[in-house]
Amino acid sequence: MKNKTRNIFLAFGIIAIIVMLFTFEVSFTQLWANICHAGYWLFAIFGLWVVLYIMNACTWLFIIRGSGDCPLPFWKILKITITGFALNYATPAGLMGGEPYKIMEMKPYIGTQRASSSVLLFAMMHIFAHFWFWTSSIVVYLVLAWCDLLPLDVGMGIILFFMTCFCGAGIYLFLRGYKRGMVVKLIHFLSHLPGLKRWVHTFAESHQDDLVKIDRQIAELRSQNKKTFYGSFFLEYVGRVFQSFEIYFLLQLFDAGTGGGLTFVYALLIHSFTSLFANLLFFLPMQLGGREGGFAMSVAQMGMTANIGMFISIICRVRELFCIAIGLLLMKVGNNVPAATPPYHLIHTETST
Known about the structure:
disordered C terminus, single chain, mainly alpha
């Protein structure tokens, strides 16, 4: 990627951070008090996210190697992964920032087609694992409700019903996408949206062959490369479960739950329901407002006070801002092609079938 293009992404990310800081309706005094209250657990949370980013990078590398060699060292895959997530956090609609950046960074090494398909497959797997994680949390909640450990009234029953329908529809669509591909159909859908018809039609005509090849690679991941499919799914699903430790660490500062494994289960449910609610508001940068509302409703359903939900949401925002800042800084580090690794077109020639 050219430095000029990279600087555009960097500037966009910095502007997004500034907007977030001005819309972060918490006084500095309250913010500092919450950070001090979190204490050494902040280091545990940052360490947890190092592990989560490594798992995400392993998933992406797993997918890349499923279609051929990867000339990049792991540390650079990790760097691009962290920066990609930073841009996704900072941009409305999420994937509008990080995924194009990752494609452009990988293009010189593995070509446009493989870069596009690997990034798309990773994004699909990331979302697919979320749907299964949300579905699992519904089952966990029903089990706890059956054991009289959590309430299950009419209102909560309706919420769980719609969550089940939403997750079931999402899993069904992704399974169809993995079976037949989804890029061509997505382009066809976008071509009917007002204002996009002409641009999408031109794009589809000029990239028809590449779009068909990407769809073929998506279908081949599950039908022919099952080791890559299930391995990447396992990493992403376990990553969603591990992410619950962030909330579990913070709950240790309060008399929340009954201790031990049950407190972690509560943390898992809070993380699951909050992430589902926040992702429904994907059009907001960092899901501003949606995440806080999700925490407030989730902790209340677990029988905890609103102060706990506010504290967790503030600390999670601090961690997100820190990760975004690190990701943007990494954008300017280690961008030269290694001497031992020539550009992609010198080591591999793509052939069409």
